[in-house]
Design brief:
2 copies of one chain form a homodimer. With 441 residues, chain A is of the alpha/beta class. The first copy, chain A, is built from 14 helices and 14 strands. Chain A folds into 2 domains: 144 residues, 2-Layer Sandwich (Enolase-like, domain 1); 260 residues, Alpha-Beta Barrel (TIM Barrel). The longest helix of chain A has 24 residues. At the A-B interface, helix 3, helix 9 and helix 11 of A face helix 3, helix 9 and helix 11 of B.
């Protein structure tokens, strides 16, 4: 079995005007659907980041992927590591290494883990389909039959995603008050059965966001773990103030995610909270973006829960590697998400199913996307009491609806942008002078 | 595909009177050949530790293994971890936890990793045979086509293994002088093509062993990495003295393995060597016997090279996990060996082939065993210039010769012992008052 062809489908997916400390979500999120077609006619699929950057990175490995045996993933990863080392050596010798490399997603050395993930998952899906085995069986088998996800709440403006003729309403409306946050949570919990809740913060004044968390606690009670993620919008002082103010609300499976920027600041927040007798764990996908950061997280105690993501860290086996590392170092693990469709949801579910350390409900943006954009046959993946059940089907357990993929590609072609820029969206739609300021509070 | 039957074949394998700080090898080494027979008639095999202990541990999981889908290895490992936790809880509550648990191989909590390895490898072999794929392909594919092994020299008395009618001569004779060490090295290098050399020390006075290493350097030159492993026979002072005395000889890919007992002592040796400008790395399979020890090794700098072993650490995926952990922590990795036959050799080769971090030639006792005892079809596995080439055959790439297995079982049945006891062998054959003393020098 060899890979005969790599197919890339850049697509655009309608997305509502969600807010975060980065700014405002654009009317369409960008994704890429990847196919590897094998010589024996099997097609493996994956879903990854979208836009020119990720597509270009995948195009650049086409010559290496086409002709490859999909089982030879260690070798493919070594090839990508070699490419990354070359980029690094060049940047070092020419002095082109930039401070912006420290921004998550902007470091060219991260690209190869994402490229690896997109190819690995498609290869594992193809292998699973060839063998008639679920993807999770190819990496050791699942340790749970169903993967719990969390309601992922956002502040947002009124209206849904899309533009022009394709503009859509959404079922959530404007969410800028504690009452609206609670309303959206109740909608999601009713529709999907989630039993854990995370609020994307860093948008309103921290006191208003604390009020929202308190309102969620009042509505759902202590059996629903609560989390808040202001994406580094707060200073160390503010982070400590929020941690102290939400001691009870963030207990019992809750956490405080990336309250401030940098491992040093996170470590200081942790020390000050512990000194006050508060052991709310700090979670991160900003201070910890690669394996080398994980021992540092342990050493400095800046992060207690690593936010994994099979798309970002290198794939399903990399996800297992992170689970193993967290186990050895005594760290917790949860899972981060970006806007995504059903192929990614199933990837996250299989990846989470094989990681014993993943004991927190995973994030998912899935409720913010709609049936109109879904690319998997049969429409949107169903949740059962807040979980995705691992299907007893080959590979990821989903197939592409090619008409839907074509519609997504058509939307992508019409779009004027090829890169996510939440700051620009804020300037266009909300405030022409808006800048991402860290810390803002 | 389900496992219909677990078959265990305890066998005895002739072994010469090899010496170490533990004492004297008995006339037969004990091994266990494991088979898992699937419902579709495929048999997966593995080789593991021998004697009543390992066989009993495998018997105790028969009810869990029979009926199991061989792909569901994460679940099997979780089951074993649950058993281990029960043992630990009982021992803690009854006060039965013993200091002897700190002796490698004597900790009942280690048993489950070895049991897991034996079952995992047999399952992966069965899966590989079912799919027509080499075992290494099932865990991501190899990163090298051939795995380098090292000449593993021992001090020994004259004669070979076996007893009574089955007593054998060996080609090495007595090895108790530097000249004999060099002679045995030349024999092994000529026969197997090894390009790296390790001497099991801790037997003679350290000065005599240093002379042996110097004689090896004089004979083979600096392109042959040299290693010495006295199995903790030395004090910190002696370890430092040897490290300083063999600075040049142990450079260029050499290492000093477990010179003294315990991470603390190892750390002190390291600090004193570094202070003297000597950065000979310390390797260990005694101070580091489980994953929890690995970060401690890094933190204390007591060990720079972890000695892996798929049989001991939990299997092929555990071997990868260790490789990943060493990569993240910036540690080196090599591979330890016990007396073994061809099934184990192929297991070690597949495991090493998928671990990018394994950059030192692996240990192997294989040259100390003979064709007479080999259980794989076609006789002993061939070395090519000191390496084992990963065959393009399903699973491990070897099949059992059942007549040979039956002969091994027959030898086992006749044996009066069911557990390795090198100290007792010394008392019986060399010195009735011999005791393992650490440190001896």
């Amino acid at each position: 079995m060899r890979i005969k062809e790599l197919k890339l489908h850049p697509i655009a997916v309608a997305d509502g005007p969600l807010r975060s400390s980065y700014g405002l979500h654009a009317p369409y999120a960008l994704r890429t659907i990847v196919e590897v077609v094998t010589t024996d006619g099997i097609t493996g699929i994956s879903e990854t980041y979208g836009g020119d950057g990720p597509v270009g990175a995948l195009e650049s490995v086409r010559h290496r992927v086409e002709g490859m045996d999909p089982f030879q993933l260690t070798g493919f990863w070594q090839y990508l590591q070699g490419q990354a080392r070359e980029i690094e050596a060049q940047a070092t010798s020419t002095g082109a290494r930039s401070q912006t490399w420290l921004v998550p997603g902007e470091n060219p050395l991260d690209v190869h883990t994402r490229t690896n993930a997109a190819i690995e998952v498609a290869c594992l899906d193809a292998i699973g389909k060839a063998l008639g085995r679920p993807l999770c069986d190819l990496v050791g088998g699942k340790c749970r039959d169903a993967v719990p996800f969390s309601a992922y709440l956002f502040y947002k403006h009124a209206g849904g995603g899309g533009m022009g003729d394709d503009a859509r309403e959404d079922e959530y409306g404007e969410i800028l008050t504690p009452e609206a946050v609670v309303r959206s949570a109740k909608q999601m919990v009713a529709q999907y059965g989630f039993k854990e809740i995370k609020l994307k913060g860093g948008v309103l004044d921290p006191d208003a966001e604390m009020d929202a968390i308190r309102a969620l606690r009042a509505e759902f009670g202590p059996s629903f773990p609560l989390r808040i993620d202001p994406n580094c919008a707060w200073s160390v002082d503010t982070s400590v103030r929020v941690g102290l103010g939400l001691t009870e609300e963030l207990s019992n499976g809750g956490y405080l995610e990336d309250p401030c920027a940098g491992m040093e600041g996170m470590g200081e927040v942790r020390r000050r909270l512990l000194a006050a007798g508060v052991d709310t764990p700090l979670a991160s996908n900003v201070a910890t973006t690669c394996f080398a950061h994980v021992p540092v997280a342990k050493q400095t105690d800046g992060v207690q829960i690593i936010l994994s993501d099979p798309h970002y860290w290198g794939g399903v086996r990399a996800q297992q590697k992170l689970s193993d590392l967290c186990e050895v170092l005594g760290l917790g693990m949860s899972m981060h998400s970006n806007n995504h469709l059903g192929v990614s949801l199933m990837t996250m579910a299989h990846a989470a199913a094989v990681c014993p350390m993943l004991t927190y409900g995973c994030d998912t943006h899935y409720p913010w996307q709609t049936e109109i954009d879904e690319v998997v046959v049969g429409g949107r993946v169903k949740f059962h009491e807040g979980t995705v059940v691992i299907p007893d089907k080959p590979g990821l357990g989903v197939e592409l609806d090619y008409d839907q993929v074509a519609r997504g590609e058509e939307r992508y072609r019409k779009l004027p942008y090829r890169k996510r820029d939440d700051e620009l969206e804020m300037q266009k739609h909300v405030d022409p002078n808006w800048k991402r300021i860290l810390p803002r509070w």
